[in-house]
């Protein structure tokens, strides 16, 4: 009797679905219904979830672990989760703090995993991908410590979760992935993802250890991608929202904002440095190496500092291609895909500190020249007076603010060949419909992992 009632109830639900949907929009094949040309499991059609899907992304940073849960419709447009555009939770410390106890590292993610699953409907969890990307913290661990932590995390997700999962979805992100995901995120937020390549936005993301450039290029330029050599990754073939892209993406390791300071210090061979503010006498530590940080007796000199910045970037390094950015790296061929540039991470924070952007601004339109003009003012200010002249400057950055501004201007103009007066947009948050999205990689990762097309690489052995 119970079985008959259950069968009758199931038939009633199916009949209701058939009654409510236009006949032309629904068909049945095996265990799937096709609704408006999209295939969904029967459970999703019956429960009214045929038009939504979820993605879970863990950002395993050096100081904290974070989880982002995104909800999309069938067109990959974001749907709200509660009152926000995503679920976001974090926990401290980061995975790398558990170097000697991999299981404890994995267990630290349990609260985040539970909160993520709580917002994903039970019937949709098997279709919701779970991806973890580890960054700086795990990269710095020794021996097999990082591998053991990642394996423990894989086992946790497989045993404790019903989310869609593949072992390779738990990994340490490389610079190419971060650059790709940032490009996807920015273009998604600006609703240029899915348009032809010439309408998309190019991105330059200046992290602490590396800087990533990404932009869509023509098929002609993609076919010119150099043959692979060690540590070079150039063009990815990607598909987003039904559009194929040739995406030039390159990560310049050791040219991030913090790493570049060390490179500039190396040019003066541990002597005084004209990029340091007059009145400061200290040290700078990066990668375990301690550098002398003091201005010469003649004071700060912006002109000489620019010479040192170009030297650090190896602007005059031999270029074996038609055109290079710096240090002999192929530039991707240029074109409309980099006509509009969005700059993020350290470009934003330095602009805020130096007054290029207004206090608490989420971003704004500026020009590379603004970094040079700000450098003139900062480099002419003594260390003791910076806080009164530039109140947004962070204490840890003050001795190096002249150096940072000079480097970022040199990187844009002499490194990436951006004209000094070209308009660029500096962002920390991007407006998306009625919300603001953080200019970070997890959303781009979610969109990438949910896109149906696989990625292939031209001119590289790397595969993201």
TrEMBL record:
Similarity field:
Belongs to the GDA1/CD39 NTPase family.
Q: Any idea which GO molecular function terms this record carries? A: hydrolase activity
Active site at 178 (proton acceptor)
Q: What are the record keywords, sorted?
A: ATP-binding, Hydrolase, Nucleotide-binding
Specify the protein name: Apyrase 2
> In which residues is ATP bound?
208-212
Q: Which domain of life is it from?
A: Eukaryota
């Amino acid at each position: 009797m119970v079985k008959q009632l259950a069968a009758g109830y199931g038939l009633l639900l199916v009949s209701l679905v058939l009654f409510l949907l236009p006949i032309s929009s629904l068909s049945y094949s095996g265990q799937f219904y096709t609704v408006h040309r999209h295939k969904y499991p029967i459970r999703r059609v019956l429960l009214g979830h045929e038009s939504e899907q979820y993605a879970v992304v863990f950002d395993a940073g050096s100081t904290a672990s974070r989880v982002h849960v995104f909800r999309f419709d069938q067109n990959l447009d974001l749907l709200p989760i509660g009152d926000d555009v995503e679920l976001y939770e974090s926990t401290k410390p980061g995975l790398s703090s558990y170097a000697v106890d991999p299981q404890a590292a994995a267990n630290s993610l349990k609260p985040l995993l539970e909160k993520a699953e709580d917002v994903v409907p039970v019937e949709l969890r098997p279709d919701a991908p779970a991806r973890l990307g580890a960054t700086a913290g795990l990269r710095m661990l020794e021996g097999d410590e990082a591998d053991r932590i990642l394996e423990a995390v894989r086992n946790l997700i497989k045993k404790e979760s019903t989310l869609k999962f593949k072992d390779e979805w738990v990994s340490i992100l490389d610079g190419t992935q971060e650059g790709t995901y940032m490009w996807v995120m920015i273009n998604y937020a600006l609703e240029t993802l899915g348009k032809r390549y010439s309408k998309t936005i190019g991105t330059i993301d200046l992290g602490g250890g590396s800087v990533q450039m990404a932009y869509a290029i023509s098929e002609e330029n993609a076919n010119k991608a150099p043959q692979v050599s060690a540590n070079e990754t150039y063009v990815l073939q990607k598909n987003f929202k039904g559009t194929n892209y040739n995406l030039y993406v390159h990560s310049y390791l050791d040219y991030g904002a913090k790493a570049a300071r060390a490179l500039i210090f190396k040019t003066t061979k541990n002597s005084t440095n004209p990029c340091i503010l007059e009145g400061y006498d200290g040290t700078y530590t990066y990668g375990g190496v301690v550098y002398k940080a003091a201005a010469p007796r003649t004071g700060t000199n912006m002109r000489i500092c620019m010479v040192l910045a170009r030297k650090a970037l190896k602007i005059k390094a031999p270029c074996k291609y038609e055109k290079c950015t710096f240090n002999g790296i192929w530039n991707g061929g240029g074109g409309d895909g980099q006509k509009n540039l969005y700059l993020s991470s350290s470009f934003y924070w330095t602009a805020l500190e130096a007054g290029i952007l207004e206090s608490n601004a989420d971003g704004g339109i500026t020009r590379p020249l603004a970094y040079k003009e700000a450098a003139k003012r900062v480099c002419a200010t003594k260390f003791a007076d910076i806080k009164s002249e530039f109140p947004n400057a962070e204490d840890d950055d003050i001795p190096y603010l002249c150096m940072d501004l000079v480097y970022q201007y040199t990187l844009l103009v002499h490194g990436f060949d951006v004209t000094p007066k070209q308009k660029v947009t500096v962002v920390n948050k991007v407006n998306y419909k009625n919300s603001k999205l953080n200019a970070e990689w997890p959303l781009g990762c979610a969109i990438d992992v949910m896109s149906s097309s696989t990625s292939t690489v031209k001119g590289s052995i790397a595969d993201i």
